Amino acid sequence: MTTKEIYRMEGSHGFDSRGVWNQTVRMESVTCSLVPGHQRAGRRLTSLSVDFKKPFVGEDFLWSSYSECLVREDAVTCLTELKLTGFFTQKAEVTVAGRPVPIRYDEFSVTGWGGIAAPASGVELKNNCPVCGMLDYTGVRNWRNLIDWKQWDGSDIFMVWPLPRFIFVTARVRNVLESARLSGISFHAISELEPQEGGLSPGRLSYWLPIDSAKQYGVPPDLL
């Protein structure tokens, strides 16, 4: 496997098509006695609930303004039948202008592991607060060197830390999903992505991946 065979899966419409959280969504609040400016939201405490202004509902995949992915129930069946690995789904709520929709959508979450970004990608841990655990990284400068293949668990769908909101997929996933004509998704070769100018503050890895799984992959405890 090479980076040229890896794609980022994301929405196929513009950002204005994305939904925003409903008020029922609750987040953990993190404070810091060392650096007051580290106060921030932590892990999400409730199931995902997203409201859309425009009636994009009916598409197989929908996306929130925070790049969370929702998948239509029928499409979940398709993904399961295709025997893709590295994801799970859990019930979510979708509304349009505040009104529930009759179609069930689930939150699409990544469980596959592509490891911690390789140093050659330019990603570097700049800050790990000893009190509140805030993590700050530099952005990706060289996408072609992002993945350390020795860390990849072989999943079709996977994350690379510290990019938990990026859904990375193999060429096989792109090919089978395009053949299935599922709507609401697009694929971009990561080797062609532009360098990131800003930094990354992804939260703790345990917000995104079960601790037991992370330990199995040999993730350092100070990132959990």
Question: What are the key terms here?
Answer:
4-stranded mixed beta sheet; mainly beta
Draw up the topology in text.
Elements: E1 6-10, E2 20-21, E3 27-30, E4 40-44, E5 49-52, E6 61-63, E7 69-72, H1 73-81, E8 87-91, E9 93-96, E10 99-100, E11 105-110, E12 113-116, E13 125-128, E14 135-138, E15 157-161, E16 163-170, H2 171-179, E17 186-189, E18 199-200, H3 211-216
Parallel strand pairs: 5-9, 12-15
Antiparallel strand pairs: 1-16, 1-17, 2-5, 3-4, 6-7, 7-11, 8-11, 9-10, 13-14, 14-18, 15-16
Description:
With 224 residues, this protein is mainly beta. The chain has one domain. Helices cover 11% and strands 33% of the residues. It has three helices and 18 strands. It has helices spanning 73-81, 171-179, 211-216, and strands at 6-10, 20-21, 27-30, 40-44, 49-52, 61-63, 69-72, 87-91, 93-96, 99-100, 105-110, 113-116, 125-128, 135-138, 157-161, 163-170, 186-189, 199-200. The strands form five sheets. Strands 12-15-16-1-17 form a five-stranded mixed β-sheet. The longest helix is centred in the middle third of the chain and has 9 residues, at 73-81. The radius of gyration is 18 Å and the shape is globular.
